Amino acid sequence: MNPKTKGREIALSVLFAVDLGKNSVPDAFLPFKYESPVSLEYALKLVQGTIENLSDIDEKIKSLLKNWSFERLNAVDKEILRLAIYEIENVVGEDYGIIVFEAVELAKKYGDLNSGDFVNGILRSFLRLRNEEVTT
């Protein structure tokens, strides 16, 4: 598995453990101590950045939801969206298509039956709005 792909998967698990399990970041990383250092470094970068920008990221997600409240979001979907939006906005040199693709794959693997389509739709809307802001 690609180190960044594995890093995203680890970051998702850590964010989930921190948000829902109320674990500390170091404790949430403990189960992954034998993973590749490259994957762990990337995961840590994503986790720290997502947590530092959480309120801004959550506001962006809320603005994209139609006929659905943020509080009702599936916990896995919410963490995947947070992670992907942070990465799109802050990690230089990453291909947005790969970020979205891997977010959708994580949603299919860890979410419910509709998570893949839901995550894809929200992230595509986010990218469309972001591109409009950049070009205007």
Topology:
Layout: H1 3-19, H2 25-29, H3 37-52, H4 54-64, H5 75-90, H6 96-110, H7 115-135
Helix pairs in contact: 1-3, 1-5, 3-5, 4-5, 5-6, 5-7, 6-7
Function: Involved in transcription antitermination. Required for transcription of ribosomal RNA (rRNA) genes. Binds specifically to the boxA antiterminator sequence of the ribosomal RNA (rrn) operons.
Pfam family, one: NusB
InterPro entries: NusB-like_sf, NusB_fam, NusB_RsmB_TIM44
Task: Summarize the structure in words.
- This protein has 136 residues and is mainly α.
- The chain has a single domain, classed as NusB-like (N-utilizing Substance Protein B Homolog, Chain A), CATH 1.10.940.
- Helix content is 74%, strand content 0%.
- It contains seven helices and no strands.
- The chain has helices at 3-19, 25-29, 37-52, 54-64, 75-90, 96-110, 115-135.
- The longest helix has 21 residues, at 115-135.
Q: How would you briefly describe this protein structure?
A:
One of its GO terms (biological process) is DNA-templated transcription termination. This protein has 136 residues and is mainly alpha-helical.
What's the total count of β strands? 0
| Class per helix and strand makeup | mainly alpha
Number of helices: 7
The first-level CATH class name: Mainly Alpha
Oligomer: single chain
Radius of gyration: 14 Å
Largest sheet: none
Query: How many domains comprise the coordinates?
Result: 1
Q: Identify the CATH architecture.
A: Orthogonal Bundle
Distance between the termini: 38 Å
Strand content: under 5%
Overall mean pLDDT: 94
